[in-house]
């Protein structure tokens, strides 16, 4: 039966046995530096992912509010008796729903008459919402972007 008594390694400073290396903690300092560097890299990726999830969830909540405003605007535009008051009534309905969802600022309301249906298209700049720009430090910016939602309703 074969038995290995010691393993000899050479690191340029002379031969050192494996037992003496582990007893002195040889190489642990180098390994500790690599572990710290790998941990920082993984931590950076995890923080970036967390910020992306937070920002995306806020974008989706705001998008749901804009969708609700577009739907209410389409209902109001479809029920309008006079075409001249349709724009004003629709803008007021959209503004009230957007205010309830925390969206303030300039909103473009476009009403398209499609015969028996009415389409309302809302364009909301991201700057006029409560969406934080968490990823701008990582060159993923929402500056200059718009949320655009369309809804249709049948005229009564």
Structure description:
The chain has 156 residues and is of the alpha+beta class. The protein has helices at 18-24, 28-79, 83-100, and strands spanning 8-10, 15-17, 108-113, 117-125, 146-154. It has one domain (15-154). Helix content is 49%, strand content 19%. Strands 3-4-5 form a three-stranded antiparallel beta sheet, with helices on one face. The protein has a two-stranded antiparallel ribbon with strand order 1-2. Helix 2 (28-79) runs antiparallel to helix 3.
Sum up the structure in keywords.
alpha+beta, 49% helix, single chain, 19% strand, 156 residues, three-stranded antiparallel beta sheet, rod-shaped, two-stranded antiparallel ribbon
Q: In a nutshell, what does this entry contain?
A:
The chain is of the alpha+beta class and 156 residues long. It has three helices and five strands, in the order ββαααβββ.
How do the strands and helices of this protein lay out in sequence?
Elements: E1 8-10, E2 15-17, H1 18-24, H2 28-79, H3 83-100, E3 108-113, E4 117-125, E5 146-154
Antiparallel strand pairs: 1-2, 3-4, 4-5
* Gyration radius, in Å: 31 Å
Shape: rod-shaped
Total domain modules = 1
Mean pLDDT across all amino acids: 84
Number of continuous helical runs: 3
Number of strands: 5
Strand fraction equals: 15-25%
What about the largest sheet? 3 strands, antiparallel
- The structure class reads alpha+beta
* Strand line-up of the largest beta sheet: 3-4-5
Distance between the termini: 96 Å
Please estimate the helix content. 40-55%
Q: Low-confidence spans: pLDDT under 50, at least 5 residues? A: none
H/E element order:
EEHHHEEE
């Amino acid at each position: 039966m074969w038995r290995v008594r010691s393993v000899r390694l050479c690191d340029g400073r002379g031969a050192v046995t494996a037992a003496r290396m582990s007893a002195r903690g040889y190489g642990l300092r180098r390994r500790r530096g690599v572990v710290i560097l790998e941990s920082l890299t993984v931590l950076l990726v995890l923080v970036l992912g967390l910020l992306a999830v937070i920002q995306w969830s806020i974008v989706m909540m705001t998008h749901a509010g804009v969708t609700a405003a577009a739907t209410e605007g389409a209902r109001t535009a479809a029920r309008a008796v006079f075409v001249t008051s349709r724009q004003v009534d629709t803008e007021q309905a959209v503004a009230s729903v957007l205010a309830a969802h925390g969206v303030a600022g300039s909103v473009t309301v476009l009403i398209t008459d499609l015969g028996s249906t009415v389409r309302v298209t809302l364009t909301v700049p991201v700057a006029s919402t409560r969406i934080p720009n968490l990823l701008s430090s990582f060159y993923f910016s929402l500056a200059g972007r718009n949320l655009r939602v369309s809804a249709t309703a049948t005229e009564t």
